[in-house]
Design goal:
4 helices; alpha+beta; BirA Bifunctional Protein, domain 2; 12 strands; five-stranded antiparallel beta sheet; SH3 type barrels
Amino acid sequence: MAGEQTAGRGRGRGAGSWSTNRGNLAVSFVHFPTAPQTDWFALSYAAGLSLARVLVEVCGFDDAEVGLKWPNDVFVRGAKIGGLLLETAATPQGVPTLVLGMGVNLAHAPQLEGAVYRAESLRRLGYHGPEKPVIRGLIEAWDSTTAGFDRMQAPRTPLFRDWQAKAMYLNQEITVRLGPGQHKTGVFIGLDEQTGVMRLRHSDGTIEPIVAGDVGLLGGGGGSGD
């Protein structure tokens, strides 16, 4: 855990800054999956569901108030309260591992530049409890999630369905920013149940798989950062 983070940065196309003020949560979890390495990406979906579970069971928010924005943001009542980043790493001995970085706006919320949504803190949204139960809840949720993930056989259809059930912008027109000056538009029709990639239906009816990008409603900006 870190008490404050000032120089972090996300990864991938159009990655924004990743900062955490004192009073918020910045935590990283290490996991050594026994599942095939080709499936490790799906733990990003599992991580989002883990945080959503804590927001309901520990913080007391209604399940319907918690949403997941593809690929790695978590919202409460339409406001972004956190994000996560899944990365591969290796021990000094060369053993492959996963590191999940997670930031939660517990006490403070940043201003999001270029975003059509707002960021909010759990305090302002109504959670006034201490930090420790949230941390404990995240640890327990991640522990049970990774154990279940390693037992689950591919394809990970149940996981993709559970994530999609909480997906924001489902069946709405969106824009996906792929990089500077690059974007795709279409209707977000859900995740592929076999591979977990986003399915984007274009105006001509064709369906395109989207592996990575920054999502926003059509006509608005995507925005990134925590």
